[in-house]
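Subject: Sanity check before I submit

Could someone independently write out the structure tokens for this chain? I want to compare against mine line by line before I put it in a report. The sequence has 71 residues.
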Amino acid sequence: MVNNLQRAIVLERLTIEIEVEDPNDAFLLAIAIAGDADYLVTGDHRSGLLQRSNIGRTRIVNPAEFCAEVL
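---
Independent answer below. Compare away.
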């Protein structure tokens, strides 16, 4: 329930005009853009985010890529 409330608050404040395959991923992209994130790490290969590879300056990578680059 707490996660749903936090998501609702974030979605209320952030909007993006970017088409995504899974509408549930839109808030992740909005957070990455608003937070000027370097990386968005996801293991969900079905969502289409990994195929996008970036959103603005934020690189979208899987956990193995992130560990290889950052650690």
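---
OP: Matches mine. For the report I'm noting this point. The chain has a mean pLDDT of 82.
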